[in-house]
Amino acid sequence: MNELTGKSMKVHQAIARALTDNGVDTMFGLCGDANMFMVDSFVHDCGGTFVSTSHEVGAALMALGYASAADKVGICSVTFGPAMTVARSITRRSASGGFTRARCARPAAAAGR
After folding, report:
1. What radius of gyration, in Å, describes the C-alpha atoms of the chain?
2. Strands 74-77 and 49-52, how do they pair?
3. Is residue 59 one of the residues assigned to a domain?
4. Residue 86 is part of a domain; what is its CATH number?
5. How are strands ordered across the β-sheet holding 102-105?
6. pLDDT digits (tens, 9 = 90+) for 50-67
7. DSSP structure class, residue 75
């Protein structure tokens, strides 16, 4: 339930709102069927900025660069399958090097897989 409007909120709207409530204003990613509604809500309902890329490697590296330059958490959003595997590998590898300010989240629809 949305406290301001009294209306129920969909999962993708709640995720977008949670990101902005936690200080996220920019997200990098590759839009697909698993994250397009969340990205739309992040941009149109929450006023965030989405930087679209043509490949998940670019999205993950942009999130890392943004996190380093802006001293904020870098968010990378991609879709299922190989895209998720590649982006997650990059952010994990950066964490093993001591750089932990970038996050790559699994789309909600894939959580049961």
Report:
1. 14
2. unpaired
3. yes
4. 3.40.50.970
5. 49-52, 26-29, 74-77, 102-105
6. 999 988 888 888 988 888
7. E
